[in-house]
């Protein structure tokens, strides 16, 4: 006996494709979108921008980040035009061309988002339309170690609650509003803490890049239950750097090994104690840190914000970008 289902035409068995606001592109398809955009960086410059443990070369810059810089340049021009149209509608004289274009770069620890942010800064600053490109990491808005210890949050450093989110949002809002000079705290990975008395100053950039774990987090509701304006609400474009957790863990451990042989050796390094024990003991600490802090933060807080990004960049096991998803709606 032939079942009713099996007797249906083949096309009737196919489920409708899931609706998505993204267009998925292979590496080759994305690379072709750079058109004739010239590559303004050489191998030596790329090497200086590359993060420890990240694998990137001129081919990767040409195939992935050059098309992205072209897209962002188009976005900047279109956004300026939109602001001009809004001014015309409101009857306001002049324009808001001085309003910075803000880019968010998110992703896990050790996924390579810092390298992406630095590459974008270097590439975008070479476009004649916007030479002033500033890069700020959210590390400067981590609560100081004393405050984290007082709140019992040292084991949750990097989680959303370990940041001064209000200060971070206000910092970006002030830059977006066109304030002439805005300052931020400075974080040192060497001492693993905020540097007392040190401030980073940002003065009217054409483009601001904000890089960090949780930059795409939605705003927390206020005590009155009302929705607040969050950091990501100030972004004109955002990038999420994605990879499988097992690959990121391997990259994290490899980076830890390299740091143990370099920066951790410095006398004032917070992590110098891990150079005084065997490599296996040090790696046990790194594995525990990944398992109890970084991986849970990735799965609970960072990865769920991926769908809020304008562009998702997916890396393979070798750190090379394989596919990209660009929001079209």
Structure notes:
Helix content is 37%, strand content 17%. By secondary structure, it is an alpha/beta fold. A hairpin with a 5-residue loop joins strand 8 and strand 9. The longest helix is centred in the N-terminal third of the chain and has 33 residues. The N terminus is likely disordered.
Put simply, the count of helices is: 9
SSE succession: HEHHHEHEHHEEEEHHEE
Instruction: State the share of residues found in helices, binned by percent.
Output: 25-40%
Which stretches are low in confidence, meaning pLDDT under 50 for 5 or more residues running?
Answer: 1-14
Q: What is the percentage of strand-forming residues? A: 15-25%
The rough form would be described as: globular
Our Rg estimate from Cα atoms comes to: 22 Å
SSE-based structural type: alpha/beta
- Mean pLDDT, as a whole number? 90
* Sheet with most strands: 7 strands, mixed
Spatial gap, N to C terminus? 47 Å
Number of strands: 9
- For the biggest β-sheet, the strand order reads 1-9-8-7-2-6-3
**Oligomer status:** single chain
Jot down its keywords.
329 residues, alpha/beta, seven-stranded mixed β-sheet, two-stranded antiparallel sheet, 9 strands, 17% strand, disordered N terminus
Please provide a brief summary of the model:
The protein is of the alpha/beta class and about 325 residues long. The chain has helices at about 10-15, 25-30, 45-50, 60-90, 115-125, 145-150, 165-175, 245-260, 280-300, and strands spanning about 20-25, 100-105, 135, 180-190, 195-200, 205-210, 235-240, 310-315, 320-325. The strands form two sheets. It has a seven-stranded mixed sheet with strand order 1-9-8-7-2-6-3. A two-stranded antiparallel sheet has the order 4-5.
